[in-house]
Design a protein that fits this description.
single chain, mainly alpha, 2 domains, Tetracycline Repressor, domain 2, Arc Repressor Mutant, subunit A
Length: 213
């Protein structure tokens, strides 16, 4: 019986610890979105979370560690989106179109956070990039790998011309990033989904006219 009670107590402590960690991450997300990376402080985040600053250090060593943890969460969400679309029913081209829509929907829903990646608004400077690359790049490559696997299906089904699937995955991601960057710099006017059709059209059909006038 005592072992059972001890186990229950340990579980409650673990749940409480995880709850506090999530609260801190959500507070950090909000503060980063409002102030940008450089202008945000751990004091700001602690105040928003409702904890003492010392509590933050129990979970994260620094502001950078907090930010990188948020980015790992975000990339994890993109991995989940690609996995869901890849396993869905439908032809590869249809699923790739759905992938663009799903990604744009997610980015639009979290636009305040993603603003920090624009130098004009976020203050995320070059000095932070090496650690970002080390921690995030492997997960980003996972997104590209899954996307290229779906493109490879399209090549096998003759829906996409023969080319290196990974290169095409980079191209598709580049189109999405370009449109998202433009949308953010223009003040997020209108819905990000307005770019969905042009991204899909340029990716599948290119920009050359089908027949000259």
């Amino acid at each position: 019986m005592s072992q059972y009670l001890t186990g229950q107590s340990t579980r409650r402590k673990e749940l409480e610890k995880e709850k506090k960690r999530k609260t801190i991450l959500q507070a950090a997300r909000t503060v980063f979105a409002e102030r940008g990376y450089d202008a945000s402080t751990l004091d700001d985040i602690a105040l928003r979370a409702g904890f003492a600053k010392g509590t933050i250090y129990l979970y994260f060593n620094s502001k950078e560690e907090l930010f990188l943890s948020l980015m790992e969460e975000e990339i994890g969400r993109f991995v989940g989106i690609v996995k869901k679309v890849k396993s869905a029913q439908g032809c590869p081209s249809h699923r790739l179109s759905s992938l663009v829509q799903e990604v744009l929907t997610h980015l639009e829903a979290h636009k305040d956070f993603f603003r920090i990646f624009t130098p004009e608004q976020g203050g995320l400077t070059e000095k932070h990039h090496p650690e970002l690359r080390r921690r995030i790049l492997p997960k980003y490559r996972r997104v590209l790998s899954l996307t290229s696997s779906l493109i490879r299906e399209g090549i096998r089904e003759r829906e996409i011309r023969k080319s290196d699937p990974l290169t095409l995955a980079h191209a598709l991601t580049g189109l999405v990033n370009a449109m998202v960057g433009r949308w953010i710099l223009e003040g997020c006017r209108g819905s990000l989904m307005k770019y969905s059709k042009i991204i899909v059209s340029v990716f599948f059909d290119g920009v050359r006219r089908s027949s000259p006038r």
